[in-house]
Specification:
422 residues; alpha/beta; Carbamate kinase; VC0802-like; 14 helices; binds adenosine-5'-diphosphate; binds aspartic acid; binds magnesium ion
Amino acid sequence: MHVFKFGGASVKDAQGVRNVAGIIRQQDPKQLLVVISAMGETTNALEQLTWAYLRQQPDVHSLWQDIRAKHEQVINELSGSNPAIFEPVFELFVDIEATLSQEPDAYSPPDRIYDQLVSFGELLSTRIVNAYLNQSGLDSYWVDARRLIRTDDSYREGKVDWDQTCEYITDTLAELLDTSVVITQGFVGSTDEGNTTTLGRDGSDYTAAIFAYCLDAESVTIWKDVPGVLNADPRWFDETVKIDQLTYQDAIELAYYGATVIHPKTIKPLQNKEIPLYVRSFLKPEEPGTVIGNFEKRLPIPSFIFKMNQTLISLHPKDFSFIAEENLSKIFGQFAEYGIKINLMQNTAISFSVVVDNQPERLARLLPQLQEDFRISYNEGLELITIRHYDEKTIDRVLVNKKLLVEQKSRYTVQLVVKDLG
Ligand code: ADP
Ligand code: ASP
Ligand code: MG
């Protein structure tokens, strides 16, 4: 069987949904599972709505109406002679409105409420695509991924219980996949108690990998707005080159360092079962894209990853003790406790430097803790450039007009923390 995943950009409007349906229709409908994300920027809008709801702000209603209107517009453009087919979407509107009409449960952690509301994006988009496919004569079956993907209760970053999940997935889908295309949501899961969870922002690629792993899929294809994996993000670079074949190792390294074209958790389950991952363009579905698998050759050209808005924090023990096991375990423990991911680290005898995404709220809680033992210096507004399979020429090229603050080289990867002088 095969797994397809369509991201938000592919279903951002009615034309997008028609295009996705066209790609699905080209396939054998049997043994095809389709994972779909929320439409366009819906998840961002639902996040705004959630914060407003939790604070009981007056704009809750208008924020929700905007989201509802965007979905209604897509339905209006898609509905043919039988608009009743979109009834399940209106039922979801009713569910959301029922939640919003009540005050937030004071006993529920905010992250749990976040998952409950934000997950509606995927429920809505999959209901719309499913209805449209059925209306246009293709038998498809809508499945609630929350019933299949079991996670712990780490809301907003649910950890998958693989044994339970694979059992539910195979029990539910094995026969269904023999009869019709199955449509389901990316990004969502639920706890043993039946509370909705999400897998972390941009987690729908990961959902596709979870289904593929459990179903021993022959392949996964993630359909994107780019021709495949490129050697840099085309949003920042003019002259990008498409990579035809990529090893799992290079793919996981690129994703880990921030190449947002693939969610970093996607590769492991696929590599573990040697399932190839295709990255293809939903705008040019006839083109082959990139295939990620077990290949001999490594990346043919240097690949770049830019992370903007980085903060460099340097810690100096007040008592002049070495940066050794004791200090390091204390530092890592505190970063983990406040949920701050370290993008780069480097130490000398009595200083330890890290580069992190600028997250003012979390850092404001972490820094006072660290200040008990360390003197802290702090540098904001930086860029972190990672080059996989670098050479000196490419390093010189990216450093033009930049001040270099930290450089770290391993055999295949260089990371540069820079300040833009432009
Ligand atoms: P979706 O949410 O629709 O699944 P994303 O927007 O998350 O897709 O991923 C596609 C985007 O990833 C592209 O539009 C591109 O800007 C960005 N991107 C970052 N790095 C790369 C890269 N190395 N190759 C291709 N695209 C990249
Ligand atoms: N809709 C979710 C998000 O925007 C998941 C995804 O798109 O992969 O984060
Ligand atoms: Mg995405």
